[in-house]
Amino acid sequence: MEVFIDKCTDYKDTYEVIEEAFSTLGGIDDFIKDGETILVKPNLLKGSPPKEAVATHPDFIISVIKNLEKKDVDIIVGDSPAGRMSPKKLRKHYEKSDWLRIEDETSARLNYDVRQIRKNFPAGRVKKSFDMLKLAQDVDGIINLPKLKTHSLTVFTGAVKNQYGLVHGLSKAAYHGQFLKLNEFGRMLLDVNGSIKSRISIMDGILGMEGNGPSGGKPVSLNSILASKDPIACDYAACKMVGIPMQKVPTLIESDMDFDSIEYPKRRPSSFERDIEYPTGGSQPVRVPNFLANLFSNLYLDRPKLQKEKCVKCWECEEICPKDAISRKDHGPKISWWTCIRCYCCAEGCPEEALVIEQ
């Protein structure tokens, strides 16, 4: 398995680097065919300005699309952000992330189809069906465009977890409540990836995020683009590049990939030598009972904290919480720490960024 890595310091230069990534990994004909409908799946956790490094940068998306336009394909750009979905909400996310210009500058169209389907995956290790965005089944192929970011729960979020975004709306939070053990949650994420099988993952590592990601961390210049046919290999290379131990990342430790077999045809992760700040927590080194896993979460993992001055009492946090740990109070949401499972869905989905992760 190969992972392409190269330096890129400016989003204006992404077209050429992405073109080389396609060429190095087999050529554009290996990934798309004339007449196909292709879903370009970036990271759209929520609407956020590009400078905050929460969503895949619009210039990065446009450069990928322009490479795909070498073939006669129908291109749709879409994701399923956190929370309840509607065409109106999607447009707000697109507008805030500066994605509306994608339709002006390319032949691609933005997705407004919020229908869901139940997708069966009999080979799943821990989950054998998922509530998915219907669009993911309707297209011929998927191009995965993750953002290189840290994550307060899983320590790292990249190519594997980006495909979790195709799970429909509030179902993502519900699965957090179903899989309380972090390593088990990692196995579920791998099941999602097994059911989707994107054709290539191209990671936006030009402006990434460190600290308490995926939405409350700090933007950090990483000046890189990574690409691979295998999302697990892509994530491993990204973690090596920024100094995140693979033992902390549940999707890596639960994978059966032989990481020593990965080849790097352009640059190696060690070429960048940039260690970033990453959250505490991560994979549990041993299997533990649920009650100990919950105790570990309450005593060790960081907590969501309300910034009252930012809260507008929209109650999206209450709606998205998979364990009903949030109640309405005059000052805003109140979180029950013994019910909270530290999935951080509330902080990720808060449109005002009023919930932050407290260390």
Detail the topology: elements first, then pairings:
Blueprint: E1 3-7, H1 14-24, E2 37-42, H2 58-68, E3 74-77, H3 87-96, H4 101-105, E4 109-110, E5 116-120, E6 129-133, H5 135-138, E7 141-145, E8 147-151, E9 155-157, H6 159-162, H7 171-178, H8 182-196, E10 200-210, E11 218-228, H9 231-242, H10 250-253, H11 290-300, E12 303-306, H12 316-320, E13 326-329, E14 332-335, H13 345-349, E15 355-358
Parallel strand pairs: 2-3, 2-7, 3-4, 7-10, 8-10
Antiparallel strand pairs: 1-11, 5-6, 8-9, 10-11, 12-15, 13-14
Question: Please, could you describe this protein's structure?
Answer:
The chain folds into 2 domains: 3-271, 3-Layer(aba) Sandwich (Rossmann fold); 290-358, Alpha-Beta Plaits (2-Layer Sandwich), CATH 3.30.70. Strands 1, 2, 3, 4, 7, 8, 9, 10 and 11 form a 9-stranded mixed sheet that branches. Strands 5-6 form a two-stranded antiparallel ribbon. It has a two-stranded antiparallel sheet with strand order 12-15. It has 359 residues and is an alpha/beta fold. Helices cover 29% and strands 22% of the residues. The protein has helices spanning 14-24, 58-68, 87-96, 101-105, 135-138, 159-162, 171-178, 182-196, 231-242, 250-253, 290-300, 316-320, 345-349, and strands at 3-7, 37-42, 74-77, 109-110, 116-120, 129-133, 141-145, 147-151, 155-157, 200-210, 218-228, 303-306, 326-329, 332-335, 355-358. Strand 10 (200-210) and strand 11 (218-228) form a beta hairpin. The mean pLDDT is 92.
